[in-house]
Design goal:
The complex is a heterodimer of chains A (about 260) and B (about 260).
Chain A lengths: L1 H5 L3 H4 L2 H11 L15 E4 L2 E4 L4 E8 L1 H6 L5 E8 L4 E7 L5 E6 L1 H4 L4 E9 L11 E4 L2 E6 L5 E4 L5 E4 L5 E2 L11 E4 L9 E7 L6 E5 L2 E5 L4 E5 L8 E4 L7 E6 L2 E6 L1
Parallel strand pairs in A: 1-8
Antiparallel strand pairs in A: 1-11, 2-7, 3-6, 3-9, 4-5, 4-7, 9-10, 11-12, 13-18, 14-17, 14-19, 15-16, 15-18, 19-20
Chain B lengths: L1 E2 L9 E7 L12 E8 L2 E5 L4 E2 L3 E5 H5 L5 E5 L4 H7 L19 E6 L5 E6 L1 E2 H4 L6 E3 L10 E8 L8 E8 L4 E9 L2 E6 L9 E5 L5 E8 L2 E6 L12 H17 L1
Classes of the chains: A mainly beta (about 260), B mainly beta (about 260).
Chain lengths: ~260, ~260
C-alpha cells in the first residue's frame, strides 16, 4: 500500500479526484461506493438472485423498513425482476405490508425457467418528513428450494442499485469498474469434496466487465448474471477482474443435498 | 483481527475451514492456529487439535474437540507460551493478517447424520468483542414454522475472560409483550431449540447487555438451512441511524422492563 502511495505523482496528490482515480486503478483491493456519504433519500437494493431453473424455486423474506425504523405507514415495496441478460421480466408493487413479509418466486410467477436478479425498492406514499434524509439498504433474505425440498437461505450482501423513495429516479452506479483487470478475490473455502459446485456471478456495475475464474475468461454486461460450474480439479477459486466488487453466490451439491451461501 | 468458532451438539457436527490465505490471495507463511479457552477467569492459549493441508486449517468438532468450547485465531508466532502471555485478562488484537476488506472469513459448515449440510462464511471481529450492547433481530426471516427443527446458536465472544449470564428475549413487537426468555452465557455458543410460538412475523429476538451473532438453523427431511441475521444498523445509512436504532432498542427495553 505504501508503495502504491509513493507512486502517486505530486500533481495528482493535490487533486483529490485524480488521486482517487490513480489509487483505484493501481490498487488490487476491492472498493465500493460509501453510501453514508449520499446526500439524498434513497432506497438501495442488492441484486438478489432468483432461480427457477433445474427445479429450483426461490423465496424472498423482506421487512417493511420504513415502518420498522421510521414508523411510516402505507408504504409500498417495488420488486423488479430481470432475466440473466438484464431484460425486464416483471414488476410487482406490493401495497399491503406486514412488518415481515414473504414472496414465493417460481416459474408460474415469472413465466420462465432460468435465473436472474431482482431489485427491491421501498417507496413512501406520504409526504417525506421535512428535513429528513432517509437511506435504506435492503439486505433481506433469499431461500432456494430444489425438487420441492427444504429451503437453504442466504442474506443480501451489497448495494448495487438505488431509487428515490418517491420511486422516480434510479441510480445504478454504486459499484465501479477499474481500468486494469487487477481486482483479486480468492474465495476462502475449498470445494474438494462436493459432487458439483456452481458459482453465480452478477455484474453489479453499470458497465461491461471482464473476469477470470482460475484463469478462464468471461465477459459480463451490466447487471447480467452467469453461472460457472467448477471443474473437478478446481478446489480453490481465484477471481480476477476489473470490477470493484465481484463476489459470486455459491451452490455446493453433495448426493441429494445442496447448500447456498455468499462467497 | 478475527476470531473463529465452531458449533457442536448432539444433532450437528461442524467443520471449520480457516484459510491460510486472505481474500486478496496473499498466503501467510508459517501461520499457526491457536485456541483460546477460559480457565480460572483467565484466557488460556493452547495448541488445538486440527488437521491441515497447504491452504487450510480444519477443525472437525466430532474429531478434534467433541464440545463447542473455545475460540480460534491464527497468527505467526511460533511460541505458544509467548502468545499465552499476551492474553490473560482480556483478548488482544494480536495480528493483522485477518484485517481485510472484505472481511477475512472461515467456512463454518454443519452436518447432520442424514448427510444434510449447510454453511456460511463466518468470522467474529475483534472490535465486536470489545463492546457491550444488544442485538435485535427478526425470527421469521430465517426460522421456518413448517420445518421439523428450528435452532438458534447465539455466539458471544467477549474480551474479558468471564462466563456471565445474560438474557435473550423473544418479543412480540406488535402486541408489546414478551413471548419467552432464554438464558445465555458470555464466551459461549449458546444453543436453543426454537418453539413454533417464537417464530412469527412480529416476533424479534433481543439480547440484553451483550452482543452476539444469531445463527439460525432449520431442518426438514435432513435438508438444512443455516444463516446469520444482520444487526439493524446494516439496513439504515441515514445520518441519524444510531439515534433511530437506540430509540428502537429503548422500545424493546421498555417492553422487557414493564
Amino acid at each position: 500500500m505504501n508503495l502504491i502511495k509513493s507512486l502517486i505523482p505530486k500533481y495528482f496528490k493535490s487533486n483529490e479526484t485524480l488521486k482517487n482515480i490513480f489509487f483505484r486503478t493501481l490498487s488490487s483491493k476491492y472498493r465500493v461506493f460509501n453510501i453514508n456519504k449520499l446526500n439524498k433519500s434513497l432506497s438501495i437494493s442488492d441484486s438478489f438472485l432468483w432461480r427457477t431453473d433445474q427445479n429450483f424455486k426461490t423465496i424472498f423474506r423482506f421487512s417493511d423498513l420504513l415502518r420498522f425504523f421510521y414508523k411510516l405507514e402505507k408504504n409500498n415495496i417495488e420488486i423488479i425482476f430481470f432475466s440473466k441478460n438484464y431484460e425486464l421480466i416483471k414488476t410487482l408493487n406490493i401495497k399491503t405490508l406486514s412488518l415481515n413479509n414473504e414472496l414465493e418466486i417460481d416459474k408460474k410467477l415469472l413465466g420462465i425457467e432460468d435465473y436472474g436478479i431482482f431489485q427491491v425498492y421501498h417507496k413512501i406514499t406520504q409526504d417525506m418528513p421535512p428535513d429528513k434524509k432517509i437511506i435504506l439498504l435492503d439486505k433481506s433474505y433469499v431461500g432456494f428450494s430444489k425438487e420441492k425440498n427444504f429451503y437453504s437461505f442466504l442474506h443480501g450482501n451489497i448495494q448495487t442499485a438505488g431509487k428515490e423513495l418517491t420511486g422516480k429516479k434510479t441510480f445504478l452506479n454504486f459499484v465501479d469498474r477499474s481500468v486494469r483487470k487487477n481486482k483479486i478475490y480468492q474465495i476462502q473455502n475449498n470445494f474438494e469434496e462436493f459432487d458439483k459446485t456452481e458459482l453465480i456471478f452478477t455484474n453489479p456495475s453499470n458497465k461491461r466487465i471482464v473476469f477470470f475464474v482460475n484463469n478462464k475468461k468471461f465477459y459480463l454486461d451490466s447487471f447480467n448474471s452467469t453461472k460457472v460450474e467448477l471443474q473437478k480439479e478446481e478446489n480453490i477459486v481465484r477471481i480476477k477482474s476489473n470490477c470493484n466488487f465481484l463476489r459470486p453466490i455459491i451452490f455446493n451439491y453433495k448426493r441429494n443435498f445442496f447448500d447456498v451461501y455468499h462467497s | 483481527m478475527n476470531f473463529f468458532f465452531h458449533i457442536h451438539n448432539q444433532e450437528y457436527n461442524s467443520r471449520v475451514s480457516i484459510p491460510k490465505f486472505n481474500n486478496f490471495s496473499e498466503y501467510g507463511k508459517d501461520l499457526k492456529l491457536f485456541k483460546l479457552l477460559i480457565k480460572n477467569q483467565k484466557w488460556f492459549v493452547e495448541r488445538p487439535n486440527y488437521e491441515e493441508n497447504k491452504e487450510f486449517f480444519f477443525i472437525e468438532s466430532h474429531k478434534n474437540c467433541n464440545n463447542s468450547e473455545g475460540i480460534y485465531f491464527i497468527g505467526f508466532s511460533k511460541n505458544y507460551n509467548e502468545v499465552d502471555n499476551k492474553f490473560k485478562n482480556k483478548l488482544v488484537d494480536f495480528e493483522n493478517f485477518t484485517n481485510t476488506d472484505p472481511e477475512f472469513r472461515s467456512n463454518l459448515r454443519v452436518m447432520n447424520k442424514g448427510g444434510g449440510f449447510a454453511s456460511y462464511q463466518s468470522e467474529y471481529p475483534f472490535s465486536m468483542t470489545m463492546k457491550q450492547g444488544s442485538i435485535l433481530s427478526s425470527t421469521s426471516s430465517l426460522a421456518n414454522k413448517d420445518s421439523e427443527k428450528n435452532m438458534l446458536f447465539f455466539v458471544n465472544i467477549f474480551a474479558k475472560p468471564i462466563k456471565e449470564k445474560f438474557s435473550i428475549y423473544f418479543v412480540n413487537y406488535e402486541k408489546k409483550e414478551i413471548v419467552s426468555k432464554r438464558e445465555a452465557v458470555t464466551n459461549e455458543v449458546n444453543f436453543y431449540r426454537l418453539e413454533k410460538e417464537e417464530i412469527d412475523k412480529n416476533i424479534f429476538l433481543y439480547s440484553q447487555n451483550f452482543l452476539g451473532i444469531p445463527v439460525f438453523i432449520s431442518e426438514k427431511n435432513f435438508h438444512i438451512s443455516m444463516e446469520h441475521t444482520h444487526p439493524p444498523h446494516e439496513y439504515v445509512h441515514s445520518n441519524d441511524r444510531f439515534t433511530l436504532i437506540n430509540n428502537l432498542k429503548d422500545e424493546f427495553n421498555k417492553i422487557i422492563n414493564s
